[in-house]
């Protein structure tokens, strides 16, 4: 019993570290990758490559699940993808939404400093909650509605701190970049892209959760479906957004070891999170997200000439508080037995799959 309890405690700490590092390092790496000196890679190609890495990784994991037998792997893929065309077509919707979302996140990271990006992207909690009410007819607790209000106020405070920069009283400073390096900074564009990504994240997540109810498909097989169907949308995005540059410079223009690391981090990091998230309760997830925001702020001070102000600190504090309040469970606080909440298992399984596709 003691060994089991200690093992469970270790898994929780591992979950905390993994979730924190994934949230913080990805945002910082995306910002650095889009603002560093040198040739700028095309973000649309990075999104496609991340899907390819995710597809290859998921195929290996399903191969292991099937006892390292290629015949079983082929049969499983045929049974899941080919023999269930309607289910496969349904996956096209979240696949397309996730591709657009990931491209928007690169746009946001190109124009917002890492700390502001990290805080703003927490609005996905709001969009997910709204779509859960509208699509799944889920009822939110009063504390959750209060948390959503705090979240909006906190993000608004952070953004207003940003707009104050023009008058010399800004909470954050744009990263200094040599002329010609990285895209010209446009905070309105960055914030709009982050809002769009939050909207798509909420819509795709709830749609996916609704579709997954009662489905008996492993998380890795589901990711194969998602990545496989995401590739055509990703390539189409490349052609539409960057067709001229692709023709002139090539698909891998601007790629180096750091870009490869960023692609792998985006792809494999999400899969790792999907494995450990089942050991993390709401409080631990709140700690992980909060620590990620704090790490992003501190790192941005040293890496990106970020200047912290009282208004930004208050806004970030409200966002962190809203995260904890949204995950607060009054029943558990009163001593209710864990695991008795309705549909908790189904929601946890859906969350594992969603986090596997999250940036």
TrEMBL record:
Entry membrane topology: Multi-pass membrane protein
Cross-referenced Pfam families: Nuc_sug_transp
GO cellular component, one term: Golgi membrane
Listed transmembrane segments: 40-64, 119-136, 143-161, 188-208, 228-252, 258-277, 284-304, 310-328
InterPro entries to which the protein is assigned, alphabetical: EmrE-like, Nuc_sug_transpt
Keywords assigned: Membrane, Sugar transport, Transmembrane, Transmembrane helix, Transport
GO MF annotations, alphabetized: pyrimidine nucleotide-sugar transmembrane transporter activity
Compartment(s): Membrane
Annotated family: Belongs to the nucleotide-sugar transporter family. SLC35A subfamily.
UniProt-recorded name of the protein: UDP-galactose transporter
Organism of provenance: Anopheles quadriannulatus (Mosquito)
């Amino acid at each position: 019993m003691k060994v089991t309890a200690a093992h469970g405690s270790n898994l929780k700490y591992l979950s905390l570290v993994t979730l924190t590092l994934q949230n913080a390092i990805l945002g910082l790496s995306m910002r650095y990758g889009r603002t560093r000196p040198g040739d700028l890679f095309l973000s649309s190609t990075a999104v496609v490559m991340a899907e390819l890495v995710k597809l290859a990784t998921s195929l290996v994991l399903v191969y292991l699940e099937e006892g390292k037998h290629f015949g079983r792997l082929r049969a499983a893929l045929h049974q899941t993808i080919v023999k269930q065309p309607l289910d496969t077509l349904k996956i096209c919707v979240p696949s397309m939404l996730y591709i657009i979302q990931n491209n928007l996140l690169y746009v946001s990271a190109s124009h917002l400093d890492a700390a502001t990006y990290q805080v703003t992207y927490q609005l996905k909690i709001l969009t997910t909650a709204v779509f859960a009410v509208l699509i799944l007819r889920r009822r939110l607790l009063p504390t959750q509605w209060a948390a959503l209000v705090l979240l909006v106020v906190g993000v608004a405070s952070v953004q207003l701190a940003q707009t104050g920069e023009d008058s010399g009283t800004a909470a954050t400073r744009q990263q200094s970049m040599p002329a010609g390096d990285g895209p010209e900074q446009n905070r309105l564009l960055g914030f709009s892209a982050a809002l769009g990504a939050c909207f798509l994240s909420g819509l795709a997540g709830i749609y996916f959760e609704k579709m997954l109810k009662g489905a008996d498909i492993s998380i890795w097989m589901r990711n194969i479906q998602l990545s496989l169907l995401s590739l055509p949308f990703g390539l189409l995005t490349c052609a539409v957004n960057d067709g001229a540059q692709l023709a002139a410079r090539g698909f891998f223009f601007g790629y180096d070891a750091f870009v490869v690391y960023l692609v792998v981090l985006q792809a494999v990091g999400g899969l790792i999170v999907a494995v450990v998230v089942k050991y993390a309760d709401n409080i631990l997830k709140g700690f992980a997200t909060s620590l990620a925001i704090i790490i992003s702020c501190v790192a941005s001070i040293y890496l990106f000439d970020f200047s912290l102000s009282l208004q930004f600190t208050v806004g970030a504090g409200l966002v962190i508080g809203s995260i904890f309040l949204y995950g607060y469970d009054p029943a558990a606080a009163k001593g209710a037995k864990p695991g008795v909440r309705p549909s908790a298992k189904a929601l946890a399984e859906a969350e594992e799959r969603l986090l596997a596709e999250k940036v």
